[in-house]
Amino acid sequence: MIEDVESAAPALCRLQLAVELRALREASGMTAAEVSSQLVVSASKINRLESGENGVVEPADVMALCGIYHAENELQATLVGYATVTKTKRDWWQKREFAPVIPPGFKAYLGQEATASGLHNYEAEYVPGLLQTEAYVRTLHRRAHEGLSRDEIDKLVAVRMTRQETLHRANSPLRLTAVINEAVLRRRVGSSEVMREQLAHIADLASSLPNVRVQVVPFEGGEHPGMNGAFTILEFRERHPFPPIVYLENLADAWVVRKQSDVDRYEEAFRDLLAAALGHTESLNMIKKAIEEF
Predict the structure, then answer these.
(1) How far apart are CA 216 and CA 220, in angstroms?
(2) CATH assignment of 5-89?
(3) For a Cys-Cys bond, which of 24, 46, 88, 149 suits 69, CB 3.0-4.6 Å?
């Protein structure tokens, strides 16, 4: 349960609400289809509520569900409070100024990232977003989004920089385990100065933050399970029965994978990548050596 609902972020309230509603339904022995029939809504709406995908949750819907599940009054009041937060407060990525530069698929991901307790990320071509410097981000967006105005690029940069605050949360900073291909260290993005600053930033975070671990897959290791492309696995707080999910993106789209068998494959691939990568200290040494080569 969230101790201080009034000051809680909407994303966290949506996640906790999803967990509690799913637990209530399962305790009742009902299927999502049976609940949707009683509530006169689609089964997909029940599934979205239980996965935390709805940006706003109507308190009236929560009250109706609590009635169907015969939830105790105290629990019902708490869950309605969560729903109220989602209606009265906005997460930073829902602000109007960011709307033009955050596509729907990525907006859904940001809500998951903000509430995750752990993130496992493999990147083959560029520095993981949570470890990027402003100059590196700006250079990437200028190349990847040619035709955007300076104001739009500024907003994209602001989005990336704001995301990184999850690594510095006071109570429960995000645990980031990043595995990167050696090509990320060698590929010049921007000037030599930009690259030196970027690589030094990675080394600094990995050395100073106990919740950040970076490992490098060296070229000399040959083939590895990350050769099919980059991916991100999000894990949620141990006390929440909310299973891990996988986030994927390409030039045209971004999506979340929830099917357990698929998530299992990505988790296995990440374990294999960790085994193929250099250790933490060896990886830091390679990063520091790469700095000297720019």
Answers:
(1) 11
(2) 1.10.260.40
(3) 24
